[in-house]
Design a protein that fits this description.
EC 4.1.2.13, lyase, alpha/beta, globular, binds 2-O-methyl-1,6-di-O-phosphono-D-mannitol, Aldolase_TIM, fructose-bisphosphate aldolase activity, fructose-bisphosphate aldolase
Length: 336
């Protein structure tokens, strides 16, 4: 094993350490600007920087957060005290990560489906991010469920890109977070979500193997298995956990860990599902890599008002603590 593989394995284990999870604060400029605008904040490079500073300076953040995913803009910015974001979070004992895909773009030949781009020039970009302090990276592939979707073409294209990204990351000494997201959008059943997610994961596993990616040096970031957000059903946390673990069981034991995305679930539902997941014995740790389920309450509580800065941080702290407690349940159960 090379020293880079050993390093990747150590970082992946650190990211999924017991009782800790990942904060996804890597919204693209367009997404972040529109979320700030909805919260009443004028979007600009500085308001995005201020908002990310609010997040990373939340008291006690490192008690429940092992890593934070940033976007390129934030990694090039500094806190009010002049420290670059990567340096500031490392000083807290939190690993900085970087979203390296350049977004899900319409896929020629597959109307209504996307291919996540960003492979061109990736090794040079990864080397730069490693040099400025990043420890891990993230790439998100997006799959939408409809009667005829996702197509096999979309699954094959995106699985191949995810695996090529993962291999490039490990060569650069960065841990790849591999995120195949089957969207909650739609009126599909929980069974259909399970079938689609299982097919996507099978293709991703095959491509990771073809690209010689070391599974002990990656973190898988999947969706939980739920019905669509337009479905009249509402599965219980136990049903979600059962269905999710059943799909995940196809992953080998050497996988370093699983850190779920929240996918637009209300924060309390995402946390309840994470709690229920801990009741299952699995060979890999199960934790969170939530974006909206952690930051939406903080953004709403702050709203760009400096007198409510502490309210934003309190809201983030409360949600981090709840999810870290959920992720810690598993160890408590095992030692009981
Ligand atoms: C934070 O949002 C991430 C970036 O999204 P865009 O590039 O589309 O702006 C996103 O990849 C996020 O990390 C995952 O979707 C998980 O976030 P949620 O909110 O689903 O937990």
């Amino acid at each position: 094993m090379t020293s880079r593989s050993t390093e990747c394995r150590q970082i992946a284990a650190q990211l999924t350490a017991p009782g800790k999870g990942i904060l996804a604060a890597d919204e693209s400029i367009a997404t972040m600007s529109s979320r700030l605008e909805q919260a009443g904040v004028t979007p600009s490079a500085d308001s995005r920087r201020m908002y990310r500073e609010l997040l990373v300076t939340t008291p006690g953040l490192s008690d429940g957060v092992s890593g934070i995913i940033f976007c390129d803009e934030t990694l090039g910015q500094v806190l009010s005290d002049g420290r670059p974001f990567a340096q500031a979070v490392r000083q807290l004992g939190i690993l900085p990560g970087i979203k390296v895909d350049t977004g899900a773009k319409p896929c020629p030949g597959l109307p209504g489906e996307t291919i996540t781009e960003g492979l061109d020039g990736l090794p040079a970009r990864l080397a730069h991010y490693a040099e400025i302090g990043a420890a891990f990276a993230k790439w998100r592939a997006v799959f939408t469920i409809a009667d005829d979707k996702p197509s096999w073409g979309s699954i094959a294209n995106n699985a191949n890109a995810l695996a090529r990204y993962a291999a490039a990351c490990q060569e650069a000494g960065l841990v790849p977070i591999v995120e195949p997201e089957v969207m909650m959008t739609g009126s599909h059943t929980i069974q259909r979500c399970a079938e689609v997610t299982a097919s996507v994961h099978a293709a991703v596993r095959q491509q990771l193997s073809l690209q010689h990616v070391d599974l002990a040096g990656i973190v898988l970031k999947p969706n939980m298995i739920t019905e669509g957000d337009g479905s009249p059903e509402r599965s219980t946390p136990e049903q979600v956990a059962d269905a999710t673990v059943q799909v995940l069981r196809a992953w080998p034991a050497e996988l370093a860990g699983v850190a779920f995305l929240s996918g637009g679930q209300p924060p309390e539902r995402a946390t309840a599902n994470l709690e229920a997941l801990q009741q299952h014995q699995t060979p890999w740790p199960l934790t969170f890599s939530f974006g909206r389920a952690l930051v939406s309450p903080a953004l709403a509580a702050w709203g760009g008002d400096e007198t409510r800065y502490a309210d934003g941080q309190t809201a983030l702290g409360v949600h981090v603590a709840a999810n870290a407690a959920a992720a810690r349940l598993r160890r408590d159960l095992q030692s009981a």
